[in-house]
Design goal:
- This protein has 9 helices and 8 strands.
- With 221 residues, it is α/β, with parallel strands linked by helices.
- It has one domain: P-loop containing nucleotide triphosphate hydrolases (Rossmann fold).
- Strands 2-3-1-4-8 form a 5-stranded parallel β-sheet, sandwiched between helices.
- Helix 1 packs across helix 9, helix 4 runs parallel beside helix 5 and helix 6 packs across helix 7.
- The longest helix is centred in the C-terminal third of the chain and has 17 residues.
- The two termini are 13 Å apart.
- The structure holds BIS(adenosine)-5'-pentaphosphate.
- BIS(adenosine)-5'-pentaphosphate binds next to helix 1, helix 2, helix 3, helix 6 and strand 6.
- Catalyzes the reversible transfer of the terminal phosphate group between ATP and AMP. Plays an important role in cellular energy homeostasis and in adenine nucleotide metabolism.
């Protein structure tokens, strides 16, 4: 049975950080809509330019575009055994579309860990975040998780950069959007009993350990 896990939590809670760790240990792809959109940066198309402008403002990309990007990603062979979703779904239509896509693969969302963190700490983390220019899933934090050499990725030696949407204004807007559009989605998953809270104010290692405990309990249930 394939394993589909949806990581939820406000911006800066550590979804991307934990999805990368889970992906490596579980051998499942890390499906990040934000990452897929950022990979379109620099593409010479009207759609790619529109998406970058939406992201820079801290707004949501329209559902039909987001769902299509995920549909294409799930069609790749590495998603046949499951996936770790980071940043998707974020609206009710996206959650319903994900259910339909997974039903075609004979699967379903089995676990929704909710990473909880207070808003002030989330904005502080986002403001100090740097990512690798070669592989943006290599994420650092100048305050809590700095690279060994300033400005350089520990893993592949590429330069680090700040995301264009990591200004305090855009981060605050993204968090407002989370409470307005994404938090209500939790009820959709709570009705199925798949939501479990994890305290994201702990260290990266402690959050990972809590997530692995949850996954093990879920697999043996
Ligand atoms: P996306 O890329 O998903 O960004 P986001 O939602 O703003 O989320 P973040 O990346 O800020 O938070 P995170 O929880 O992943 O934190 P991270 O692990 O990096 O989306 C970007 C944009 O794309 C959206 O605004 C939207 O425009 C568009 N988009 C994407 N998906 C969409 C969708 N489904 N529908 C419509 N539009 C969509 O951690 C943050 C920092 O903290 C890092 O520096 C990290 O090193 C550090 N850190 C992590 N964990 C810890 C810890 N435990 N202790 C200390 N530091 C930690």
């Amino acid at each position: 049975m394939a394993t589909y896990i949806v990581l939820m939590g406000m911006q800066g809670a550590g979804k991307g950080t934990q999805a990368a760790i889970l992906s490596k240990r579980l051998g499942l792809p890390h499906v990040t809509t934000g990452g897929l959109f950022r990979a379109m940066e620099g593409q010479d198309s009207e759609l790619a330019r529109e998406i970058q402008a939406i992201m820079k403002r801290g707004e949501l990309v329209p559902d039909h575009i987001t769902i299509e990007v995920v549909r294409q990603r799930l069609a790749k062979p590495d998603a046949a055994q499951g996936a770790i979703f980071d940043g998707f779904p974020r609206t009710l239509p996206q959650a319903q579309a994900l259910d339909a896509l997974l039903a075609e693969l004979d699967g379903q969302v089995s676990l929704v860990p909710l990473l909880t963190l207070d808003r002030k700490e989330a904005i502080a983390r986002i403001s100090a975040r740097w990512e690798c220019t070669l592989d943006p899933t290599h994420v650092y934090n100048l305050r809590t998780n700095p690279p060994k050499v300033p400005g350089i990725c520990d893993i592949d030696g590429a330069p680090l950069r700040q995301r264009p949407d990591d200004t305090p204004e855009a981060a605050a807007k993204r968090i407002d959007t989370f409470f307005e559009k994404t938090a209500p989605l939790l009820d959709y998953y709570r009705q199925r009993g798949v939501v479990h809270e994890v305290d994201a104010s702990q260290s990266i290692e402690a959050v990972s350990a809590a997530l692995f405990k949850l996954i093990e309990a879920n697999q043996s249930a």
